[in-house]
Structures are given as structure tokens and as C-alpha cells.
């Protein structure tokens, strides 16, 4: 052998793996570490795009686990409106790894659950799930009880699951500098009142994101040593940025950092894998084909391609052990079912 490149396969060269193929024929983008059994329980949390993985698993007969089920008799539309079965517990979007760590700390009892509640027009809002009840709660006590139930359900998801799927979404966050905790949305946007002295903007660094994700994973495995993780990065650009950069530049910086963190964690831990949904949607190879005209929302074709690739790669690695075809109707509405709190920021654009 003259050099190491002579023994490499087709997927290692741009010409054979990409340039000589239709973009729909590009394959082997993922070499899954784990064979996800149909009887194994999978939970999904994180940014908006995580929702698609849970739905795709259910439609193909896998055990997507929800530990916070809706009241009996609630319609499917009302379930979505009140944030049931969007993620595996009623957490709402967990956009940052520091917010994931906060939920993990609460679930494991290493930090107390805050009792802050926002009141507006006689209704009460949970600062850590500001849109989970569209019209707010009837009382502060009800809001607090609901949050504690979700914390309990989040712990149940950790304890019961075989796989924890988490989609990294943002580096930008808002914290209460007096109390030392983080909000999923800037106070005063979805609910609450912004206080410049109390509410601080933080654009997380690579190391902060890496530390929070690593600590969350380690903590979860103290109560469930069998738990494995599949990380993804949301391909959806930022709705708005407080970084002072152009939103396009801020988006590229944010996603690049998140992708680098996910890569490092997956490479260094045998119980963590990374699935390239971000690359499938955002690579120039796909020519922006999978975005809606606003250049931000992923269209149904993009969602379907990502999910089809997920299951195709499992079969390529482990054999044809399940039916890969979801119901035909699911593809048409795939991208329309997202619940994305961050989109509320569009209302503040001039």
C-alpha cells in the first residue's frame, strides 16, 4: 500500500460520495452506535426539531415514551395546545444545554425548584414553561404544582428510558442574576416583565455548553446507568439574536459551536451518539431545498428526508428489523406540527 487513502471506501471521497450522485442518493451519512430495539423506550427533549424524531419513532412502531400523559378525553388538538405529547414530558422547548442541566438538577434534587411565578391580568404563568398553558394558570399554586409534576415526569423519563434523544438548539440564553437560574425565553416576550437589573443575556461559550451537557449526561446515568444518548443539532436558524451580530452570522456561530460540542461528546463517550440532521438540512449539497420561503422553517420534504435517513441507516447497520414506511399522510404535515416557543420573538421585529 502506497498511502492510507488507497484503502478508503467510497464515502470518504467527495467525488464518489457527493459530486457523482444526486443529492437524494447520498447515503451512509450516519453509522449508528446503537441498535434501537422496537421494545426499547426512547424519550425526546430539546429544541423544536426533536419533536420530529419522537413522531417518526411512533409512526414506525417504536416505543416513544411519554411520562406526562394528557387528561382523559382531551382531543388531539387540545393535547398539542396544552403541550402534551410534544416532548416526553411537558417541559416545553429546552433550547440550551444549561437549561437541560437545570431540569436535570431539579429532577435529581440537587437544586431546588424555584417558586417564581408571573402574574398577568389575573392569570399566572410559569417562567420556566411560559407557553405550556396558553392562557396561564388559574392560580400561582396551580402553576407551581404543574411545574413540580413536570419535574417528576422528567425524572421518570430519565429513569425509564433506554435512549435519551436531545436536540441542541441555541447558545443564547437569559438568566436571573439574583437567583442564578435560567429561563427558556426572555422575560417580557412570551409572558412576564423584563427587568434590566435582574434579567441578564448570556451567549454561552463552547466550554460552558460542553460542561453543562457532559454534567447532565453523567448525572442522568447515576439514576439510570443503562441510559444511552443520541444528540442532534437543530437545523433551524435563530428567530432573533441579542448578540449584536447580524442574525445570519449569529446563527452560523451558534450552530457551529453546538455542532462542535456534540461531536466532542459523542466521540469521547461510548454511550453517546450523534445523528446528522443538521448537516442533511443545511449542507450546500442540498441547495436550500428543504427550507420554506422564509429560509428558516424546514419544509415537510426536509423533515421526511431526515427521518427516512435515520431509519435507513439503522437498517444498513443492523438489518431490516422493522418497517421503515410511515403512514403516507404523515409526510405531508410533518413540518406543520412543530411547537416552537422561539418563533414568538418574530412579533418584536420592526
SSE order and pairing:
Layout: H1 14-19, E1 41-46, H2 50-59, E2 63-64, H3 76-81, H4 97-108, E3 118-120, E4 123-125, H5 140-160, E5 163-168, E6 172-176, E7 181-183, E8 199-203, H6 206-223, E9 228-233, H7 247-268, E10 272-274, H8 277-282, H9 300-318, H10 328-332
Parallel strand pairs: 1-2, 1-5, 5-9, 9-10
Antiparallel strand pairs: 3-4, 6-7, 6-8
Helix pairs in contact: 4-5, 4-6, 6-7
Q: What this model shows, in words?
A:
The structure is a single chain. The protein is an alpha/beta fold and 350 residues long. It has one domain. The chain is built from ten helices and ten strands. It has a five-stranded parallel sheet, with helices on both faces. Strands 7-6-8 form a three-stranded antiparallel sheet, covered by helices on one side. Strands 3-4 form a two-stranded antiparallel ribbon. Helix 6 packs across helix 7 (247-268). It is globular and about 70 Å long. The termini are far apart. The model has no long low-confidence stretch (mean pLDDT 92).
Amino acid at each position: 500500500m502506497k498511502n492510507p487513502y488507497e484503502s478508503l471506501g467510497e464515502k470518504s471521497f467527495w467525488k464518489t460520495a457527493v459530486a457523482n450522485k444526486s443529492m437524494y442518493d447520498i447515503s451512509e451519512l450516519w453509522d449508528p452506535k446503537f441498535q434501537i430495539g422496537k421494545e426499547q423506550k426512547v424519550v425526546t427533549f430539546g429544541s423544536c426539531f426533536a419533536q420530529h424524531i419522537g413522531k417518526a419513532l411512533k409512526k414506525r412502531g417504536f416505543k416513544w415514551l411519554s411520562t406526562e400523559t394528557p387528561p382523559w378525553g382531551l382531543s388531539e388538538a387540545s393535547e398539542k395546545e396544552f403541550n402534551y405529547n410534544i416532548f416526553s414530558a411537558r417541559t416545553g422547548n429546552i433550547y440550551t444545554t444549561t437549561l437541560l442541566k437545570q431540569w436535570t438538577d431539579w429532577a435529581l434534587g440537587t437544586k431546588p425548584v424555584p417558586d417564581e411565578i408571573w402574574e398577568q391580568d389575573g392569570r399566572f404563568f410559569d417562567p420556566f414553561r411560559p407557553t405550556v398553558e396558553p392562557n396561564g394558570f388559574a392560580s400561582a399554586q396551580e402553576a407551581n404544582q404543574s411545574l413540580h409534576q413536570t419535574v417528576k415526569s422528567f425524572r421518570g423519563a430519565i429513569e425509564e428510558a433506554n435512549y435519551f434523544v436531545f436536540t441542541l438548539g441555541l447558545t443564547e440564553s437569559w438568566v436571573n442574576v439574583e437567583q442564578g437560574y435560567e429561563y427558556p425565553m426572555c422575560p417580557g416576550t412570551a409572558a412576564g416583565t423584563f427587568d434590566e437589573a435582574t434579567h441578564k443575556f448570556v451567549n454561552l461559550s463552547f466550554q460552558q455548553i460542553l460542561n453543562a451537557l457532559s454534567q447532565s449526561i453523567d448525572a442522568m446515568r447515576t439514576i439510570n446507568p443503562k441510559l444511552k444518548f443520541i444528540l442532534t443539532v437543530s437545523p433551524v436558524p435563530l428567530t432573533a439574536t441579542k448578540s449584536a451580530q447580524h442574525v445570519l452570522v449569529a446563527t452560523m456561530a451558534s450552530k457551529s459551536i453546538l455542532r462542535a460540542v456534540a461531536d466532542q461528546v459523542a466521540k469521547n463517550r461510548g454511550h453517546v451518539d450523534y445523528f446528522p440532521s443538521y448537516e442533511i438540512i443545511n449542507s450546500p449539497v442540498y441547495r436550500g431545498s428543504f427550507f420554506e420561503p422564509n429560509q428558516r422553517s424546514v419544509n415537510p420534504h426536509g423533515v421526511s428526508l431526515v427521518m427516512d435517513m435515520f431509519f435507513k441507516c439503522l437498517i444498513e447497520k443492523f438489518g431490516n428489523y422493522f418497517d421503515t414506511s410511515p403512514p403516507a399522510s404523515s409526510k405531508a404535515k410533518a413540518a406543520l406540527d412543530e411547537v416552537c416557543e422561539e418563533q414568538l420573538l418574530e412579533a418584536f421585529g420592526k
